[in-house]
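Quick illustration for those who missed Monday's session on complexes.
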Amino acid sequence: MTTTKELIIRANRVERVRTLCGDSSEPARCQTLRRYQRMILWKCRELLPPLLKHTDVPARITESFILSGYRFPNYSVVQCLVSAFRPTNETGNFWTHFLPVFVFGFYFAEPFGWENSVPANDPFFYPLWTYFIGVFCLLMASSMAHLLNSMSLVVREVCFFVDYGTISAYTVGSSLAYRYYIHPGAGIPETSAGGHNDSREQPSLSSSLPTAPEFSVFFETFYIPSSCLVAVICVLACCNTRQRWRTYRYVIRTLVFLMPFLVASTPIFYRLLYASPHLPGSTSSFPTAGFFYWHCFWLVASAVFNISKVPERLSPGRFDIWGHSHQWFHVCTFLSILEELHMITGEVRAILLHPTLVVPPASPRHLPSPSAASTYGVMLLLQASIASIIAWFSYCAKGIHQPQAGQQGKEVLAIRHLKCH
Ligand SMILES: [Zn+2]
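Prediction with zinc ion bound:
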């Protein structure tokens, strides 16, 4: 496929030949060259429509304190994909969630290679795979939403509905991993990385119940349904911010995503607050707490960037292409996911090393076994519910934005004409 750069070089060559030809050269040959030049320039223009200022695009797609680098919402799929390699105000947003897919995949695969590990397709790893699905969909949907949102106003709305949906599905993927690997009744001895612990051979288990009965009931019965319900509420609220409550949309979206974090993290809070019943002298039964604190730190940092709109607020126009708050928001959210992954895999490692120590024998001897229905099934059901909500909001968005499409088409032609001449 001919790249844009090659097209520009060829156009320049034709221009040089045309100049050399002048009026005295063979008319037929020069006419052909001119036609060829016009065709190449037209293709260039088609591939690379000029970037626009915030005053040249519909108010709907402008971002606070971002003054330039906008793509008009009428790009083709190819133009959107090509724009990933062109400095626009969405390029950084795309790469800051696309490249992390590979980093996440690298660390995710680690547990399968550990000594004492079970095969990757063993039911033990089902919750880890559902967590992977949640994170993978979040990163891919987010990066593609930023890349493809300039196809039309309707597509832009759909892109961000899908973005919110995948964030919500990710929170349920986390809950499923917590449900099976971060059991509130677990008491996992601290281990050095990669080492065996003798307590596996000489377990000293208490017969006391691992958790308060009321919390056990919540954890065993209501924890996952609550996570799913909160995720659905999140999608409904965030999709609504694109059609109403627009003034406070960033605050609402940030606060709305605090809810699933609080619900999903309940077993972790329990583990942090209560000492393990079968680890005498311990103050906390959660040796991977450090990762959790970093996970929280990066989440708070991402929220600060998302709400404050710093640094572009301090110098409007200076961070239009690189370094604006949404890119830092993406970086911080990915770092929080990475810390969460380390926390989960740390607990997985402890379970693999100490299969009988994670819960005392008087209560459930082992962590509840994951099944395809309780992991993939839950995720599938949730995704189907979220897809229905997105379909409904997309239908509404089509009714609102499609009538404007014809008018925008005329506007973009006029703006392009002005920018190119
Ligand atoms: Zn984003």
